[in-house]
Amino acid sequence: MNHLKGIKQEHKIYEQVNRICSMCRDIYDYAKVTGRIEYNPSEGLHKFLEQGKKENMAHVDEKELPQLLRAIDNYPTPDSRIGLKLLAMLFCRPSELREATWAEFDLENALWNIPEQRMKKRREHIIHLSTQAVQLLHQLKPLSGQSEYLFVAKSNSHKPKSDAVFIMALRYLGYAGRHYSITRALMNGILKQHWHMLRMAWQAYITKPSTYKIESISCNGMPTI
Q1: How far is CA 143 from CA 92, 105, 109, 154, 169, in A?
Q2: Residue 150: which of 139, 160, 165 has the closest Cα?
C-alpha cells in the first residue's frame, strides 16, 4: 500500500494506480479460489488510497454546435466526415461507433444493436436511427468496401480505424482536446436545458402517433416531428 501511495503522490497518476490495484485484487482472488492462498492481501486496499479529483473534459457548448457542424461539412476525408456527423446525431461513445460492424445495423428498420461485449456496462444497447443517420450510413457503405467494419483501417481491412481518427479530425477542424465534444456531454446539457419542451413534444407524439413522425433531433436540441 505504501508503494502505491508513493506512486500516486509522486506522479499523480490516480487512474493508472487504481487499475493496477484492481488487477492485483483479481489475481489474488483467483489464487484464493484455486487454493493457492488463504486470503486476499489486497482486499479493501482501494478504500485507503488517495483519489484524484475528477475533471470534466472541455466540450463544445450548444451555441458552438452549428459552427462545428458547418466545419464538419468541409472535412476532406469522406468516411471520417460521416463519422463525425453520426457522432453528433447518435451521441454514442466514439469507440462504439469506430468499432461498429455492419452486422449490428438493421437499416431497413432503422436500428443499431450494440452487443453487450462492446458496451461499457456490458448491457446490450439498441439505438433508433433517424432518417438522416440512415442516409449517412448508406453513403458510408461503399466507402468501407467488403470490410465488416464501418470505418476501415488503411493497412488492414479486417480491423477498424485507430482510436485517433476522430480526435485528429476534430484537431484539424480547430477543436483540439475536445474529442468528446459533440457527443455525450453536449447531449446531457441540451436535455437538461430543454427537457420540458422535449416532454411536451413526446406527449404530443404518444397522444396522436399517426399525426407525428419523429425524424431527428435538431441542433437546438428539439425533436423534428
Answers
A1: 21, 16, 22, 12, 17
A2: 160
Instruction: Output the CA torsion sign for 196, 201, 202, 208.
Output: positive
Of 43, 52, 53, residue with least CA distance to 5: 52
17-26, long-range: CB < 8 A, 24+ apart: 17/49, 18/46, 18/49, 18/51, 21/45, 21/46, 21/49, 22/46
Distance CA 203, CA 11 (A): 52
Instruction: Round to whole Å and give the CA distance between 30 and 192.
Output: 44
Report the distance separating Cα 29 and Cα 118, nearest Å: 25
pLDDT in tens, the chain (225 residues): 565 555 555 555 556 777 777 888 889 899 999 999 988 887 776 666 656 555 555 666 677 778 888 999 999 999 999 999 998 888 888 889 999 999 999 999 999 999 988 887 888 889 999 999 999 999 999 999 999 999 999 889 999 999 889 888 888 888 776 555 555 666 666 666 666 666 666 566 556 555 545 444 444 444 444
Give the single-character DSSP code of 53: P
Residue 166 grid cell: 476522430
83/98 Cα distance (integer angstroms): 8
* DSSP characters over 114-141: E-GGGSTTS--EEEEPPHHHHHHHHHHG
